[in-house]
Design brief:
By secondary structure, this protein is an alpha/beta fold. It is built from six helices and nine strands, in the order H-E-E-H-E-H-E-H-E-H-E-E-E-E-H. Strand 3 (70-74), helix 3 (80-89) and strand 4 form a beta-alpha-beta unit.
């Protein structure tokens, strides 16, 4: 039964990845980075980052570009296996685990595995609450020296697939999608809990700001406003 389940998961992931790849051939992608050098799709990035992505919008960055140097941290719980299979099919490396439960040894293994890659993390997964930052990504940034790049994604038109604690956003064909990357946030090493929380709050605020900006772009695209092109 377990083998059959894994086979069905793999087949489902293959069908999903193929369908969404075809869908993304019809959409128009607009990528805007606050800081040059933070585009996650370039072949030889000058620096490796921790990309912060909300769980509900992860389909957009996964399929909006070609992954040449990216890995993702995915949960061992629930839909983590399906997500891992989909990410593998688009060329991303996979690390199974949680930033909230990483010991020193596991941290070293994690960073060796992604030494030459960006690491993408969904800090509100796998069980929510929706779009609420956990300490994991800030802790990882503090211990590794990698800067956190906040992100936001939106679509002029989309479907929302309901889940148990959040929706999953999928662009509709021939729409426009927006990818926004904020200024990298660098976190000093070996911070205590209270100091670390200050940076968690800062990342949360920047994610919220970028999300508002992305939604305004989508609204402008839907209405045909010239503000979208600025």
């Amino acid at each position: 039964m377990k083998i059959r389940s894994r086979l069905l998961t793999s087949l489902s992931a293959d069908v999903f990845a193929t369908a969404v790849r075809l869908l993304f051939r019809t959409v128009k992608v607009s990528l805007r980075e606050d800081t040059p050098g933070t585009n996650p799709y370039v072949k030889s990035p000058p620096e490796r980052f921790l990309y912060c992505v909300w769980h509900d919008s992860m389909v957009i960055p996964v399929f909006a570009g070609k992954h040449r140097s990216a890995a993702a941290l995915t949960s061992r719980h629930g839909d983590g296996l399906f997500v891992a299979q989909v990410l593998r099919k688009v060329g991303m490396s996979i690390i199974r685990g949680s930033t909230n439960h990483i010991g020193p040894g596991a941290m070293r293994q994690l960073m060796r595995a992604v030494e030459d890659k960006h690491l993408v993390i969904t800090p509100d997964g796998p069980r929510g609450p929706r779009r609420q930052m956990s300490k994991g990504i800030a802790f990882l940034a503090s211990r590794t020296g990698r800067a956190v790049v906040p992100t936001a994604f939106s679509c002029a038109r989309c479907w929302r697939i309901r889940g148990s604690w959040t929706d999953l956003v999928i662009p509709k064909p021939f729409t426009k999608v927006f990818l926004l990357g904020g200024e990298p946030i660098r976190i000093p090493p070996d911070l205590g809990s209270e100091q670390l929380q200050q940076y968690v709050d800062r990342i949360q605020a920047e994610m919220d700001r970028l999300n508002d900006a992305a939604e305004l772009l989508s609204q402008a695209a839907r209405s045909g406003s010239p503000a979208e092109s600025r």
